[in-house]
Amino acid sequence: MSKSIHELEVKYNSPKLSVIIPAYNSEKYIQKCLNSLTNQTLKEIEIIVIDDGSVDQTSQTAYSFAQNDSRIKVVIQEHKLQGAARNNGIKHANGEYIGFVDADDWVDLDYFEKLYSLVKKFDADIAMATNVRIGNGKTKKRLNITKEEFVIGLQNKIDTCNLWKDSCPTNKIYKAEFLRNNNILFPESVYCEDKLFTTKAVYYANGIVTVPDTYYYYYRNLNSTSHNKILRKGRENDKNNARLAVLKFLRTHNLNVRDGNFYAITKKINIFGIPIYTKKESLRSAKHYIFSVIKIREDKC
After folding, report:
1. For the segment 174-228, what is each residue's pLDDT rounded down to a tens digit?
2. Does residue 27 contact residue 57 with C-beta atoms inside 8 Å?
3. What is the share, in percent, of the chain residues with pLDDT greater than 70?
4. Which residues contact 192 (CB under 8 A, 6 or more apart)?
5. Cα separations in angstroms, 254 against 128, 244, 251, 278
6. Which residues are CB-neighbours of 9 under 8 A, at least 6 positions away?
7. Which of 125, 194, 213, 299 is catalytic?
8. Higher per-residue pLDDT: 40 or 11
């Protein structure tokens, strides 16, 4: 017997998963993104588009999808960058779990069904899938998940995520209660907002379940806020500041993880724009360079 309209409304108003899409001037890409989400095999989802002050047709495209799919919400905010957009999405999310998909990316049609199935099977705080980067005529797996596994222990979780290389928050889903209970949010009004968020999530998670045979497709869009040099002008220090924030978090919590994986520049002397001296610190050691590449000394912090 088919379900009544009322039963379906209740089902979709209590979603298993909230998918948050931060979108800024994404009119060329968001249709493909939304097509991959509205056609998911997991139907009990809500899709929250946070338009981060776009000046193109991004919100109009999202609204046109919402007219035909009641699971889609469109929220418009002033331009505050991805961190604020994702945090706004978390505030509006009603799902048991939360996932993030950037507006120029897309996922396999069984992506969220497979992640949700395994995250429930292991009662995990995080489930993670393969991350595929596409761009410049190349396709590369940034993180390749080949087997189902429930990973515990901080260093094991860090290694499984390649966290020091890939702090991507988007190839994962997170238990919403877990994020809120630990106050895990994105830094706002900065680039590289993902590093501290993902580090905190990996640290606090009871475990991470790896999900094979389904893929998140990350499109390397040279006009996105993360790659466009004009959009990032004046924010050149954000990447290193994000690394400093991660180091501070790890040190504050006195975490015994592999030295050298996480580092940040703590001192730099330039003369006429040339880096004469650079000091890079990791958790328990510091390396000193001249001209950024010639190591002259290494000592303990």
Report:
1. 999 999 999 999 999 998 999 999 999 999 999 999 999 999 999 986 555 544 4
2. yes
3. 91
4. 238, 239, 241, 242
5. 26, 15, 5, 25
6. none
7. 194
8. 40
Q: Is the pLDDT of residue 142 over 70?
A: yes
Q: Is the CB of residue 103 less than 8 Å from the CB of residue 82?
A: no
Which CATH superfamily does the domain covering 5-219 fall into?
Spore Coat Polysaccharide Biosynthesis Protein SpsA; Chain A (3.90.550.10)
The structure tokens listed for 262 are 């996480």
Question: Which pLDDT belongs to residue 12?
Answer: 56
Longest CA–CA separation in the chain, Å? 76
Q: Sign of the C-alpha dihedral, residues 27, 30, 34, 36?
A: positive
Closest of 205, 6, 15 to residue 95, by C-alpha: 15
How far does CA 27 lie from the centroid of its chain? 21
Residue 14 has a pLDDT of 83
Q: Based on the residue annotation, tell me whether 299 is a catalytic residue of this protein.
A: no
Residue 267 and residue 239: Cα distance in Å, rounded?
A: 15
Q: How far apart are CA 204 and CA 179, in angstroms?
A: 9
Q: Is the pLDDT of residue 134 over 80?
A: yes
Measured distance CA(111)–CA(119) in Å, rounded: 12
**In the block, residue with structure tokens 């003369």:** 271
Domain map of the chain by residue range? 5-219, 238-300
As a whole number of angstroms, the distance between CA 1 and CA 197 comes to 45
Token couple for 89: 């999405």
- Name the pLDDT band for 136 (thresholds 50, 70, 90): confident
